Amino acid sequence: LIGTYSYLGILICISQVVVFVATDLYHPRRGGDPMREFAAIVRGVAMNLLVVLAITSLYRGTTFSRNVILYNTMFSIIAFSLGHMIFRKSLERLRAKGYNTRNVLILGTGKSALRFIDTLTRHRIYGYRVVGLLGPRANANPAIRRQIVGSFRDLRKTARILTPDLVVYAMPADQERL
Q1: In the chain, is it the N or the C terminus that has fewer CB atoms within a 10 Å radius of its CB?
Q2: What does the alpha-carbon distance between residue 152 and residue 169 come to, in Å, rounded to a whole number?
Q3: 84-90 contacts: CB < 8 A, separation 24 or more?
Q4: Is residue 176 scored above 80 in pLDDT?
Q5: What's the pLDDT tens digit per position in 23-43?
């Protein structure tokens, strides 16, 4: 009995990994909604349940208890969700201390730049850190004026010095300037 169910356990583990890879659940995401992540876990485990039931229905050597498979499914949803939640909280703490962050250089000093900085500040779990802004000081909001590191002409030089991971265009939709 133990040997038979160990084969079932191996089948469930392998197929769960395949389903999670196929549904892109292992792709690292910065931020994101925890409820969407939970829904993706439920979908992935439910798809795996269908795969396991299909495979075990084709295997005529042994009949597996559907209760065992159902309990495993419920346990998997709980375990994966708790694991993701613990991992998310750990990342949030690490990123608050400055680890695993991405440096962002913002082009613009107006309202769009201020809104973008506010969003990043409210959602620290994203792990983005503003290293500077490029643009005119005259029109800049006083709250972000101290973060301005140069003008648009300084982009190449500033990018070499600050080595940002991302450059964000946060200016009005002026195609000529873009």
Answers
A1: N
A2: 11
A3: 84/34, 84/37, 84/38, 84/41, 85/34, 88/34, 88/37, 88/125
A4: no
A5: 888 766 666 678 888 999 999
**Tokens matching residue 139:** 């029109």
- Whether 1 has a pLDDT exceeding 60, the answer reads no
How many beta carbons lie within 10 A of that of residue 154, not counting itself?
Answer: 13
- 166 sits in which H/E element: strand 166-169
- Which residues lie below 8 Å from residue 114, measured CB to CB, with a gap of 6+? 141, 143, 144
Instruction: Decide if 98 contacts 92 (C-beta within 8 A).
Output: no
CB neighbour list of residue 161: distance below 8 Å, 6 or more residues apart:
none
The residues with which 129 forms a beta bridge, in sequence order, are: 103
Structure tokens at 63: 């009949």
The token pair that represents 11 in the structure block = 């089948």
Cβ burial of 37 (10 Å; 0-12, 13-18, 19+) is middle
Q: How far is CA 149 from CA 41, 96, 146, in A?
A: 43, 23, 8
Q: Transcribe 122-136 into DSSP letters.
A: H-GGG-EEEEEEES-
Q: What is the mean pLDDT of residues 103-107?
A: 94
